[in-house]
Amino acid sequence: MIWNTVTLAVSTAGRRSIAATPAASRKFATASPSPVSSAGRDHKVVIVGGGSAGLVISHQLLRSGKFVQDDIAVVDPATLHHYQPGWTLVGGGLKTKEELQRPLNTLLDSKLKFYNEAVNTFSPDNNQVTLGNGEKLGYQHLIVAPGITIDYGSIDGLPEALADPNSLVSSIYGYETCDKVFRTVEKLKEGTAIFTQPTGLIKCAGAPQKVMWLALDYWKKAGLYSANGKSPINIGFATGLPGMFGVPKYSAKLEELRKERGVEGYFQHDLVSVSGNTATFALPGGKEKVKKEFDLLHVVPKMGPHAFVKTSALANETGLVDVDAATLRHNKYANVWSAGDASSLPTAKTAAAITSQAPILVRNLLQSTEGKSLDATYDGYTSCPLLTEYGKVLLAEFKYGGEPKETFSWLGIDQATPYRAFYHLKKDFFPWVYYNSMVKGTWGGPKGWIQ
Ligand SMILES: Cc1cc2nc3c(=O)[nH]c(=O)nc-3n(C[C@H](O)[C@H](O)[C@H](O)COP(=O)(O)OP(=O)(O)OC[C@H]3O[C@@H](n4cnc5c(N)ncnc54)[C@H](O)[C@@H]3O)c2cc1C
What we know:
It contains nine helices and 24 strands.
């Protein structure tokens, strides 16, 4: 029995220095799994979610050469996979949402067993998941990667405003609404445009302002916007956060741009309702509210863990999958792993982060199947290509603690400066490499192509 209640040598000292600290022991409250054959509904590895993380990890596991037909199962109810980072480009009129999607089954290697179903419940003490249709799947290892969910209902009146084709209320954060964004930008000829960002976790924390910078540039080129406050259009950025971005180095540059470009900053303003042309924001503490009139509103709703994860034994107090920040293994169940948005990894939630997380998870999972110690550690690497106008991107790259970890520093480039070359990475190269290499498990992000 591999996973009887075991004592494994992993560090419990500071998460970020896990590799450097002396190993301490930790008890894993794992079940005694029944032997798994990969026959029928039992698999060596079950992966919940065939999104960015599930696709990369399933293919990197296959490429290890240690698995045969149907050893690895991917469970996902979706029929289409979307390249979500491209939705910002759709909002800027640079791509169509249709060109960013693929049928999910065409992205899965035929050696993977695909269950086109949702997972409803986890039974980690029995090494099983139950699907929406009642079927149970057994596993030796479970990888939990169902992403997070967008809570449109968290903002009163938002679902109705988004659904109204005549309203100038939109969001790049959903497939249904991302193509409404550019239409609203084109329609606005005068008035106040407000772009929001909520408090709490969201996917790609830079995207709420990327879409604003593109809209500003569009209106500037159309002669409708200038920084002097006297143009037909004026712009506000209303964010639940105290600054423009979570990483001081990039936040300082973005604040400089905001002031230079005459954008009003409404900090610690968290959108709570939309009614007609009035947006209401909660101030810190939640008691005091501020109302602002708008002519165009770009909304980023609150996001959070799926209910089936949040209410499971796998979740931490915030509802995310409770994994070790360095090894990506579950803190309680030694045969459970997580990466991507659903995980508790304390870094910005991006596809770029997954390029670094996947090889760590795969290496450690394979090590553990051979009874070896986990020797790969994730440093929190993540990246946010911040479009600051058409033709320029500030390429934020950082790790745990908001410490910059820039790929191009060896060229003497300061990545807090927006560059044209980075724009082509974001607009052309990343979407290309995503479908041609990343989802196949051969793209390592800053490490380039991997075996
Ligand atoms: C507007 C926008 C802009 C972005 N910009 C960038 C960017 O510039 N750069 C960047 O790197 N990242 C960006 N991101 C973030 C990036 O898209 C996500 O971090 C990444 O997709 C997360 O991958 P994931 O696999 O964790 O989740 P997802 O890719 O969301 O996949 C989750 C999968 O789980 C499935 N699932 C859901 N429920 C269940 C269930 N019950 N059972 C089984 N499967 C289930 C879903 O169908 C889905 O296929 C952006 C995202 C958005 C929305």
